[in-house]
## 1
Amino acid sequence: MSHLSTKHLIGIKDITKSDIELILQTASTFKEVINRPIKKVPTLRDMTIANLFFENSTRTRTSFELAQKRLSADIVNFTSSSSSVKKGETLLDTVNNILAMKVDMVVMRHPSPGAPNFLANHINANILNAGDGTHEHPTQALLDAYSMQEKLGDLKGKNILILGDIMHSRVALSNIYCLSKLGANVKLCGPPTLIPKHITELGVSVEYNIQKALEWCDVANVLRIQLERQNIKLFPSIREYSLYFGVNKKRLETLKRPIIIMHPGPINRGVELTSDVADSEHSIILDQVENGVAVRMACMYLLAGKA
Ligand code: CP
């Protein structure tokens, strides 16, 4: 199969295992392209893509923009903080005005879960979700899966731990859907207050003891504590979190075998991950960032129907 089953990439929940495999295979081709001396291909030169960011981003925004430039697309960048949203303009009016300028594809990050679904129901362009509140971050999960596959091969039967603030993490939810569809075993670990109550219904297991969880896994994908999304105090202090759930060298040295360390960024160094682990030979955090460009090129190429 060389076509996606969808015209939008809103969540991993909505796409098939074949879609995921097609995106990851296509990303391999683009990874080869971006490592050539001439990194640019003319593939999307007839397309205009709008990057609409209603929430802060470093990696996702830069990565999408670079991916679009590598594919020769024309780009419009929009940041809500410097836009007429500040004067009360609605999401739909904002997007319709941008589309009136003949935009073919929209990449959107928004603090409200469901904002990209809303857009997909109201406008004609392809929509790519670059993170919607605590809901999904599909391209992050795809680049995470790609990075794991690079190190481990087929993910079927591999043990993947997602550690930290699961409750507020769109990366966790998209990773759960993606890894489960690829046949990996997924375990979650974190303080009970940061693990959603019915999460095991998604086919994952939960372990509250970090040492046991690290002992079990091939990969630990470590997540940031999202204090900005917590209205009430869900654990006593950052110091205590770090003591019970932080990944540090001492903890890893007690394991029987080395594990791969991942983090979607931004890292709170010294909280969920110490620098000696984040910067160690077991960390593939910067590989994730590199792979993000190739994965996003693949997503946009396939959604544009260029396959
Ligand atoms: N991983 C990620 O989404 O990072 P940014 O918030 O910097 O885009």
## 2
Amino acid sequence: MFIDILTQHGVDATLAARCEKFWALVKAKNAVMNLTAVTDDDEAALRHFADSLELLKLPEFPGGRVIDVGTGAGFPGVPLALARADMSVTLADSLNKRIAFLEEACAELGLGCECVHGRAEELSLEKSRRDGYDAAVSRAVAQLNVLCELCLPFVKVGGVFLAMKSAESEDEINAAKGAIKKLGGQIERVAEYELGGVVRKVVLVRKHEPTPPAYPRRFAKIQKQPL
Ligand code: SAM
């Protein structure tokens, strides 16, 4: 069923089998540490894998160098890397145990992802990462105004930040417009797709100018005084 659900969503059989292999690793580790609240195979196929792979259907998805901010158990970053060997994928998370798991899993799957432990607002201050990615992607990490301060500094001018959001995110999207402008970006469009009868959104934020050096601020400040 796991594989059937993915093929119903347009995933080819080889990729679906590779996703299933990664899911087996997540499930095994989830028994001993908290990686994901999803435990059912079919639900994982839909909510973790099919959802992550929707990003590749967007014509604006640039490929190239991509960072997944707050990747958790590896979503959406690992399915993207499984699907596109031509991309260079960085998986970043502030929880070291999750990054250690992802390092093991990537080695087992023969994936060349860079697995980085660190807070996004600190990692984007590194010279090699600042304005260094064709795309940043993120799901279920923070409200959009906060998330943009965490993610846009990674993106090259001309690149894109793709924020995966629920259908009920309209107010959140409107409230983030001022923050996005201050960070050098602009919402290009909000894409919608349907997943298991539920509408999901991807907010496409294009970076038009370098993010001013004042951003990102320290996390306490970002949270206390969101842009
Ligand atoms: N993106 C995954 C998904 O959709 O399944 C995981 C979502 S999980 C709810 C949020 C993750 O973001 C956690 O693993 C957490 O450690 C990470 N996180 C939260 N704030 C972060 C930050 N400032 N920098 C890096 N990672 C962060």
